[in-house]
Write a structure and sequence with these properties.
Layout (H helix, E strand, L loop, with lengths): L1 H22 L2 H25 L5 H33 L16 H27 L1 H19 L18 H13 L4 H25 L6 H23 L7 H17 L9 H29 L6 H28 L7 H23 L1
Length: about 375
């Protein structure tokens, strides 16, 4: 229920959030969504403190849904704000894959965002244990409030935005994404990588525990390896000052595929050097997935109409989020028909990525 409350508003409202960002002052949307999140978290803490007889989830789940709704408006605004700022400030340079002398802000934002998430979850677990959920919610609300205050001083690179009269339909947005896909944006590869990643996460606890016989805490190490690879990719691409070419996505998908297939074929039971092998494989997989994400977001922004850039980002985020529960359910249903120690979920995810990488390379060769 909590996962549904987090995912559903992003699927439902990200397209609307992108459309609003295209027609409105994005800095106001960014700050306003954080102000509202601070307000929702404060109300949640007060409600939990005041209404002792109500089950906590009856309060927490609606707040999670509202937070997801704010994220659906926040994310398209932030991404289009950053990428437009880079173009206007000359941070992209004459070549479409160069960022000039400055770092790539989107890559740095991705890397630092994942790092902050990892640190925040670690700190949050300790804070929750020490002071409980109600004070922790107030601390979160204060953090969102301070963030919103700082965002009020952002300057939108577009200046004054005139409301667009042209009606944008769901079909027209689908057409735009298909158009940028035909121009080289790896949209379908990105969605496939999201699905493959979700299938791996469903199987990962059983793969580590039942097949490799690792202790339960190794699941945390595996997750940290996946996230760590994505963090490193964000910082690496940011400070290299180079936006990867879209053709690099095929190679990234192939790298992820080889690592997943390699992990899937590690022998079961107690075997020497398995931890030393599995975590680097997951680290490279996380880095490759992060590479695919950053390249796709850049390409979707660059290859389409600037006036609808945020709408495309909102649609991309909605589609990528919608893929996750579908993949969780399908892989879970398939997984239930197999032994607990099966390696075939991870192997299949790798094989799918390898096939898509090969198809992409063949298409480019024939183009």
């Amino acid at each position: 229920m909590l996962q549904a409350a987090a995912y559903l508003p992003i699927v439902l409202f990200s397209i609307l959030g992108g459309a609003v960002a295209d027609r409105s002052r994005r800095s106001s949307i960014i700050a306003g969504s954080d102000f509202l999140r601070a307000l929702f978290l404060s109300f949640c803490a007060l409600a939990l403190k005041t209404f002792d007889g109500i089950p906590p989830l009856a309060i927490i789940i609606p707040v999670v849904f509202l937070n997801g709704t704010m994220q659906a408006f926040f994310s398209p605004s932030v991404i289009s704000f950053i990428l437009d700022f880079q173009h206007v400030s000359g941070n992209i340079g004459k070549h479409p894959h160069r960022t000039g002398r400055k770092p790539d802000l989107l890559s740095l934002r991705t890397g630092s965002g994942h790092l902050a998430s990892l640190i925040g979850q670690t700190i949050g677990a300790g804070v929750y244990t020490a002071i409980g959920i109600i004070p922790m919610l107030f601390l979160n609300a204060a953090a969102f409030f301070m963030s919103a205050v700082s965002e009020l001083f952002l300057t939108d690179s577009r200046g004054k935005v005139e409301a667009k009269k042209r009606k944008r339909t769901f079909a027209s947005l689908v057409g735009e994404l298909l158009s940028v896909q035909s121009q080289g944006a790896p949209v379908l590869m990105y969605l496939a990588s999201q699905a493959a990643g979700a299938a791996v996460l469903v199987n990962l606890p059983f793969f580590l525990g039942e097949r490799l016989h690792f202790p339960a805490n190794y699941l945390g190490y595996a997750m940290a390896s996946l996230l760590g690879g994505s963090i490193l990719t964000g910082f690496l691409l940011g400070f290299l000052k180079k936006i990867p070419a879209t053709r690099s996505v095929s190679k990234s998908a192939a790298a992820a595929a080889v690592c997943l297939i390699g992990a899937g074929f590690l022998p079961g039971g107690h075997t020497f050097l398995r931890p030393e092998l599995i975590f680097p494989l997951f680290f490279i997989t996380g880095g490759a997935m992060g590479w695919i994400h950053i390249v796709t977001v850049h390409a979707v922004h660059r290859l389409g109409n600037r006036e609808t850039a945020a709408s495309r980002q909102g649609f991309l985020e909605a589609a990528a989020t919608a893929v996750l529960p579908v993949s969780y359910l399908l892989s879970g249903l398939i997984f239930e028909q197999l032994p607990l120690n099966t390696p075939w979920i991870i192997r299949t995810a790798g094989i799918v990525m390898l096939l898509l990488s090969g198809i992409s390379m063949v298409r480019r060769a024939n183009a």
